[in-house]
Amino acid sequence: MAGNGEIKVCIGLSGGVDSSVAALLLKQQGYDVFALFMQNWHDASTTLHGDCEWEEDRFVAEMVARKIGIPFYFVDLSKEYRQRVVDYMFDEYEKGRTPNPDVLCNREIKFDAFLKCAKKLGADYVATGHYCQKTEALNEAGEPLLDEEGKKIYRILAGSDPNKDQSYFLCQLTQEQLSQAMFPIGDIIKPEVRRLAHEADLPSADKKDSQGICFVGKVDLPTFLQQKLKPCEGDVVEVYDAYYTENEQYIYMKNTLASLLADESENVKMITDYVSEDKASQAVSAGCPFSAEKIAALSDDELLRLSEPVKYEIEFKTETYRSGKKHIKKTRYKENPFGKIVGKHDGAQFYTIGQRKGLNIGGHKDSIFVIETDIPKNIIYVGEGHTHKGLSRSCLRVAPSEIHWIRRDLAMAPGDIRRYRVRIRYRQPLQDATVIMRENGMYILFDTPQRGITPGQFAVWYDGEEMMGSGVI
Predict the structure, then answer these.
(1) Is there a single domain that holds both residue 334 and residue 265?
(2) Do 188 and 276 belong together in one domain?
(3) Cα separation of 412 and 376, whole Å?
(4) CA distance 226 to 229
């Protein structure tokens, strides 16, 4: 078997502390290591800092490579990044969907375009500073599990640091990509990474973690999107609780969920307790409230409808009235029991479900949240408070073409039902759910309602610590 010194590893060195320590560990473990810094963005005018952050990052990365004693190379992948990540972002936002550029960056750039560049320079593997772990899948005899082509099957596990687990961002990787990947700091917690960096006197030891869009930096999203998406003023409509008492879809969801309860004496839960990533625990639920037999009995059409969000159709009629001493004729909207126009916005495509910042709507006791965006009509619908009915949903669908299995050997077939733990955002604690595979897609039915299920985001499912697959909501 080849020693580490005969294995050539390219570390994607970003100038941050995580990739720096990853490079240090690989060097200490005896690998033949070289660093490759990639520039993916040129336009500094879109960042909040207004300067070229990548130039500083490159400078730090080069100093780190020199300190560790490894060769340093540079590659410009900005063309590929714009075509395969940024253009995709614009397209998704234009459709009223919310993409995750970091997931796309890993799938399309780091473990594709960047990987190909590294291999041209002689690399056997590409390493990154992600907080996740890769292991070989084993059979019952403890031997490597092989796929149909006789290749080893790999697993992605959550990182050891529960506060920094970044497996979510790698949810679209293939077995081919995984076979050539290394994650040297996946079994280390962040404070230890900082300690190792200080111990080795690395120039990045005290560098702050990067924020914002992968390789673009901290941006004001509406301003960033306005490069291609034109502002267009529209109404902000607040939806009142009364709307749901007569809405057919909401009544259907409530009645269907109630019919699935294992204990029919229980009341079905329609509103989440979940407030934010910082105020939620990752505790295992008391158990699935739904009957597996009843779930299995649902038709494809019933599941499809259960997964659909409430749509908003509130008509506002005007009336004329006389105002002031001169009785000047004016027009106003008649009161509507279902909602009210409470403001204006610059374009529905700039907002996402669950968003509360940037609405600039006062006069409410609790925070206002976006609950739906209607792109064709350019209307944003909002609701007051975390417990607003429009924020919570229990079921989502992933279209057949969007289902991606990391463990293809364990992929579900139509008719299969499994229990997995699922997250629909990077920082969200894992949620217990029943996953149902049908001919018309995969359905994820959560034990408890979820806040802000957003089209375009990735739902990622786990079996214990292992990430099994993902799909676009």
Answers:
(1) yes
(2) no
(3) 36
(4) 5
**Residues 162 and 203 grouped into a single domain:** yes
| Pair of tokens at residue 181 | 């990947």
Closest by CA to 69, choosing from 126, 121, 129, 26, is: 26
| CATH number of the domain within which 81 lies | 3.40.50.620
Q: Return the closest-CA partner of residue 16 out of 54, 73, 70.
A: 54
Per DSSP bridges, beta strands 181-182 and 125-127 are parallel
**Quick one: 238 and 171 in the same domain?**
no
Q: Which two tokens stand for residue 16?
A: 């941050």
For 313-339, the pLDDT digits (tens) are 999 988 887 777 777 777 778 899 999
Q: Do the strands 32-39 and 8-12 form a parallel or antiparallel pair, or are they unpaired? A: parallel
Phi, psi (rounded to 5 degrees) for 246: -120, 0
CB 67 within 8 A of CB 130: no
Catalytic residues: 105, 214
310-313: long-range contacts, CB 8 A cutoff, minimum separation 24: 310/244, 310/247, 310/249, 310/250, 310/253, 310/372, 310/390, 311/249, 311/372, 312/237, 312/239, 312/243, 312/339, 312/372, 312/374, 312/379, 312/381
Cα–Cα distance between 136 and 315 in angstroms, integer?
A: 58
pLDDT at 406 over 60: yes
Question: What pTM did the predictor assign?
Answer: 0.91
Query: What is the count of structural domains for the chain?
Result: 2
Residue 297 and residue 179 share a domain = no
3-state helix, strand, coil in the chain (%, to 5): 30, 25, 45
Considering the domain architecture, whether residues 345 and 371 belong to the same structural domain is answered as yes
| Four-CA torsion 446, 425, 379, 82, nearest 10 degrees | -140
Position 455 confidence tier, pLDDT thresholds 50, 70, 90: very high
3-state secondary structure of 207: coil
List the domain range (segments joined by +) for residue 441: 230-473
**Domain final position from 192, 225, 258:** 225
- Give the tens place of pLDDT for each residue, 13-56: 988 999 999 999 999 999 999 999 998 876 555 554 445 577 88
Percent of the chain scored above 70 by pLDDT? Answer: 91
Q: Are 144 and 152 in contact (CB under 8 A)?
A: yes
Q: Is 12 helix (H, G, I), strand (E, B) or coil?
A: strand
Model pLDDT for residues 179-206, shown as the tens digit of each residue: 999 999 999 999 999 999 999 999 998 8
pLDDT tens for each residue of 338-347: 999 999 999 9
Which of 194, 225, 256 finishes a domain?
A: 225
Mean pLDDT of the chain: 90
